[in-house]
Amino acid sequence: MWVRQPIVGVLGHVDHGKTSLLDNIRGGVVAAREAGGITQHIGATEVPIQEIVRICADIIGSRSFKIPGLLFIDTPGHESFSSLRIRGGSIADIAVLVIDVREGIMPQTRESLEVLKKFKTPFVVAANKVDLIEGFSGMKGAFIPSIKNTDQSKLEELDNKLFQLSSQLYREGFSADRYDRISDFTRNVAIVPLSAKSGYGVPDLLMVLSGLAQTFLESQLRNEEETAEGTILEVREEKGMGEVSDAILYSGVIKRGETVLTGTVGGIKALRVKGIFKPKPLDEIRDPRDRFLPVSEVRAASGIRILFQGEGGVIPGSPFKEATGDLITLKKSIEDAIKGSFRPSSEGIVAKADTVGGLEALVYELSRINVPIKKAEVGPVSKRDFTDAGTNSVPENRIIIAFNVPVEVKDFQDVRIIENKIIYSIKDDLVKTREEIKQRELEQKRKAMTFPCKLLVMEGNVFRVSKPAIFGVRIIGGKLRVRTQLMKIDGSNVGPVKSIRTGEQSLDEANQGDEVAIAMDNITVGRQIREGDILYSDINERDFRLLKEENLNIDENMIMDDIKNLRRKTSPFWGS
After folding, report:
1. Rounded to whole angstroms, how far apart are CA atoms 75 and 84?
2. Of 323, 319, 294, 304, nearest to 245 (Cα)?
3. What is the CATH number of the domain that holds 372?
């Protein structure tokens, strides 16, 4: 039996400083290299307890710790945190919720709180960007020792910000206070003021996390199981090695040479562990400054790189478990985890992503804006995806989302593709694209519809009696378009408008108040129509129902009533 290091999930609203906080701890620059400055994948950083004790030397006092350190997981947000599941809960033992102290709780902060509630994960609030409050710029080191020499008015300004944050958290169902004012951490959420930019307050955060883990989580950190369990974070090509998998081992011991079950593009496969590599402490698993160290075995919890023997094709985001015991049940549990909660729709867009976690995040975001999904898969965009998207009957669903994946074909036809490495930009682009398609389709339908129109055949303005008949009309109300079918007040159809002219100019349409000349085939002025006649557009019942939903003006609505009344002389329920 051993006490493993607790896994610390880092969550929060976009751009509130999640990755920057870890950068400060490890002295790296991962945040500067993220697409759009936003974390898109899950990384892991191991901070040994010796380093924590060194950083917290000014405030740690006589405290001692049994935990070997802290393993931080930096996530793109609440969605990926949610996708890292184990036995119905989260693999994170404790979490840091990063909040910009000036902005307070934002939409993703609120969603992160919901996830923390769901998994019953204890958490600490990192009130970031205090360096932007007057009097705290340039401050470094621990927060508590510094406040003795801080101007009281500046400290009051910070306390006001923290009070506002506490009030917001209270409305979300949490009692919270500045960490040094809390006597019962089981009832109150600790708020640690800090600056991820300068490192001010970071020692306080590390001390609070270590203390809470030591005091309240020791029983769940005791690891008696030898069976290895973990989650594949990312899969990449490593020069000289081939395909390697970055992973979190959250339970047991993984050894070189043993076999594990995990998800691959060919299904759940048993793969032999050919090599295990660990980054040096304080390095980041996605972007280490030093080479990984080869090891023969690793104990949980740890961020590791695994080299599997075989064909490869491991799916990022898949759980992996040592192949022991009931393999059929074990295989099914992994299949269920990979499928997640997504249920395809017969009509919807196609979503492709490079990882399971990224795909789950994408599906989650799309569900929030009620976008139907026909297919959601990990992998590049293929010709089959274009076929699947193109068979949608609704035009705004003929879309493929490529989240951080290549597009293998460029045969777009009538399918739109949205490519981006930032999930929130994808969502914005999708909403905009779907709206553009809807508007275009609406305009086309409107042009095809027969619009309400009432016109007067003007006396003394017959220019040609027939073949075609050309005569002057005044548009009393509505809109007259070329090809509009016209009818008389008795409901009899007199045919379509062939052309509309004013002087030498041809028009596509004429509006209320216009006096124009129109041409019509197959009628003779003096027989089918006469000077002084009132004519209406001959609207079919389908268009009539659609037009009722349009934003028509008063005159147009009156013409619609006239048309309905004319039609109901022969069909009592017409237009209902």
Report:
1. 10
2. 304
3. 3.40.50.10050
Amino acid at 527: R
Distance of CA 100 to the CA centre of its chain: 21
Residues 270-325: pLDDT tens digits? 999 999 998 877 665 555 556 778 999 998 888 899 999 976 788 877 889 999 88
Query: Residues 328, 311: contact at Cβ < 8 Å?
Result: no
Structure tokens at 169: 């958290």
Which residues is 255 bridged to in the sheet? 297
For residue 468, say if its preceding peptide bond is cis, omega within 30 degrees of 0.
Answer: yes
pLDDT at 33: 56
Strand bridging mode 189-193 / 123-128 = parallel
**Confidence (pLDDT) at 29:** 45
Q: Phi, psi (5° rounding) for residue 189?
A: -85, 130
- 69 shares a domain with 45: yes
Query: Would you call 306 exposed, middle or buried from its count of C-beta atoms within 10 A (0-12, 13-18, 19+)?
Result: buried
Same domain, 104 and 203: yes
The CATH number of whichever domain residue 475 belongs to comes to: 2.40.30.10
Q: 67: number of CA atoms within 13 Å, CB side?
A: 33
Q: Predicted confidence band at 348 (pLDDT cuts at 50, 70, 90)?
A: very high
Instruction: Report if residue 355 sits inside a domain.
Output: yes
Q: Are 210 and 52 in contact (CB under 8 A)?
A: yes
What is the C-alpha to C-alpha distance for residues 358 and 348, in angstroms, rounded to an integer?
19
Residue 575 lies in a domain: no
| 562 inside domain | yes
Give CA–CA dist 119/84, Å, rounded.
Answer: 11
Q: Which domain holds residue 378?
A: 349-446
The pLDDT of residue 349 is above 90 = yes
* E-only strand ranges, 165-318: 176-178, 189-193, 222-223, 229-238, 242-251, 253-255, 259-264, 267-278, 293-295, 297-299, 302-309
Q: Which pLDDT belongs to residue 87?
A: 47
What pTM does this model have?
Answer: 0.65
Number of Cβ atoms within 10 Å of the Cβ of 436: 12
Residue 352's CB is within 10 A of a number of other CB atoms, namely 26
pLDDT at 39 over 70: no
Q: Give the span between the Cα atoms of 314 and 234, in whole angstroms.
A: 9
Pairing of strands 123-128, 94-100: parallel
Six-digit token pair at 204?
A: 């306080």
Q: Is residue 344 part of a domain?
A: no
Residue 9: name the closest of 25, 23, 22, 20 by CA: 22
CA 209 to each of CA 6, 67, 146: distance values in angstroms, whole numbers, following the listed order: 9, 11, 20
